[in-house]
Amino acid sequence: MPELPEVEVIRGDLEKEVTGATIRSVAVAGTPNAMRVIRPHTDRRELEDVLGGTTIVALGRHGKHLVLHLGDDLALIVHLGMSGQLLVSPPGAPVTRHTHVVIDLDDGGQLRYVDPRTFGHLWLSGKRSDGSVEALAGLGPDARDGRLTPARLGERLAGHTTRLKSALMDQRVIAGLGNIYSDEIAFVARAHPFRTCDTLSRAAVARLAGAIPRVLEPAIAHRGTSAEDAQYRDLYGEAGDHAPYLKVYRRTGEPCLRCGGTIAHARFTNRYAHFCPSCQR
Q1: What would the mean pLDDT of 108-120 be, rounded to a whole number?
Q2: Which residues neighbour 279 within 8 Å (Cβ) at sequence distance 6 or greater?
Q3: What's the pTM value of the predicted model, to 2 decimals?
Q4: Is 3 a known active-site residue?
Q5: Is 64 a known active-site residue?
Q6: Bridge-partner residues for 273, per DSSP?
């Protein structure tokens, strides 16, 4: 699933490509899968009629959610799910399979939402008086928020008896982290992903707070991580370059780059956690 770095790459590209563009029209494919993508809307005209004629005034992101700001009162939210891709296409380009939503822009170009597995979705949300998006109000602070100090992170984790990896992936605690970068952050912080949050010392929380930007910023600079299925693509259809720089994720059996131990993995709910048993205790 695309996480904060991948979504931030797309946000930055969109900012350059479509800020100030007017949406001429929107077409939602008349298929059950397309309707699954635009949930919670039950009628495709709820998107098509409302979006037509609006202008994209700014591009935002909160956690894994892209936000296309359409004025003071309205936002289009895009969550890429497991396999969603938001692609910019020139006029007349063939429409590929699994294209569920096509947004025509006033310059003749298009934004296309493609999603083979249809776990992602697009929907409209109102905004509050302070400009925040109503539909995202339940999310925790963005993992890239500069105000996520050790003290604030400690407050977010306080009282949780869940495992560290679970808390890092809980979007209500911190927004933007998933399976890949939670493993990487725990490694950089020398914290075992199965350690429970109530056992974390202040020093351990401080290491975690410092590890978050140390992990996320290079991933953004390398334009995200495309796993072996290569389903994550940027706005132009290109894969990310960060996979070779990962320290533990999908490196089971390889030597730890810090202590020389052997990277291991263990089942974590329906996923796996990757870590070094030697230096993450």
Answers
A1: 95
A2: 190, 256, 258, 259, 261
A3: 0.96
A4: yes
A5: yes
A6: 266
**Catalytic residue status for 271:** yes
- Residue 203's SS3 state is helix
In percent, the amount of the chain with pLDDT more than 70 equals 99
Q: Which of 24, 190, 250, 271 is catalytic?
A: 271
Question: Active site residue: 3, 6, 8, 184, which one?
Answer: 3
Span between the terminal Cα atoms of the chain, in Å:
27
- The average confidence (pLDDT) of the chain is 95
Q: Which residues neighbour 141 within 8 Å (Cβ) at sequence distance 6 or greater?
A: 147, 148, 152, 156, 174, 175
Active-site residue (options: 64, 144, 207, 223): 64
Tell me the pLDDT tens digit for each residue of 183-236.
999 999 999 999 999 999 999 999 999 999 999 999 999 999 997 766 899 999
Residue 165: active-site member: no
